[in-house]
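Checked the freezer inventory, then went back to the computational side. Two predictions to log before the end of the day. The first one is the construct we discussed on Monday; recording sequence and tokens without edits.
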Amino acid sequence: MIQVQTILNVADNTGAKKVMCIRVLGGYKKRYARVGEIITAAVKKATPRAVIKKGDVVRAVIVRTKKEIRRSDGVCLRFDENACVIIDKEKKEFKGSRIFGPIAREVKLAGFTKIASLAPDVL
């Protein structure tokens, strides 16, 4: 579960390394975001000479959370870190060209099929 002020790793090659959630999208008083949901984030750490700079405000899709994901078949899925992938604000398309690390199947079910197809593992 991701909330405001949560620091997330970035699992793509856009240049951002760490982002902080500044808004959970999806409702008036929505407090937590789960895998496959969109957040607004501020870039806290970025590589030099990258497309995305430190201080930029971006939209991101959550792909991994430390809080376990309960599925209807009884499986519990948990990751070691909180991670997200940066997307375009208007088109809701993936900005980078590579994904690092595994992602949850819920990302594909949320409609981000390009992210799921580029990921090395979909769990």
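The second is the one RB wanted added to the comparison set:
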Amino acid sequence: MKVQAPAPAEIAAPRLRVSEIFHSIQGEADAVGWPTVFVRLTGCPLRCAWCDTAYAFEGGEWRDIGAIIEKVRGFDARRVCVTGGEPLAQKRCHDLLSALCDAGFEVSLETSGALDISRVDARVRRVVDVKPPGSGESARNRWENLAHLASNDQLKFVLADRADYEWAVAAMREHDMPSRCMVLFSPVYGELEPRALAEWILQDRLPVRLQVQLHKYLWGEAPGR
């Protein structure tokens, strides 16, 4: 007996586990200051010492991509940031990113740098972490990702102290990162004074962009902002 294939409507839509979707001011990277919708996906294989979104490691709810896009549209914002956790830990993240681009949004991706970025839609701005020793996860840096960076991507170092800074400077120079894309140096909130980091950057004449987490200066460490 021949089994009839299910009709398209009967095929389950691709779903992702979502921690939260919210509207806020982008506090980091080259889009800092712009109203942005954040889609935070659940789960992360890393455990960085300074992580401020540990609540996204578990929980959340399953949503299909169409429902996510409908929710995003409701905020009437042009920019969307897919973040985590580690968004690329969910294989359907690639489908979500492409669908958001197709829907006309300006899309960015915040990723830990530990997973392959080569399959990410070329229309997406990728903000890729480079983990210093202070994070406890520097062994997880996927250096192969550097070859896949485009000029509109960004490499981000989050630094806890002078040792992290010196490590970051050495890594940046070894891999000639500024020739690939924008390089961001960011102090760990509450641990490294932004002024100290600014002075080091100026003293060493570094071709990097200092960033602070603007959202934390606006709203503190409240989740979902």
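For RB: Residues 132 and 167 are 7 Å apart (CA to CA). The beta strands are 15-25, 35-41, 61-64, 79-83, 106-111, 125-129, 154-159, 182-187, 209-210. Let me know if you want it refolded.
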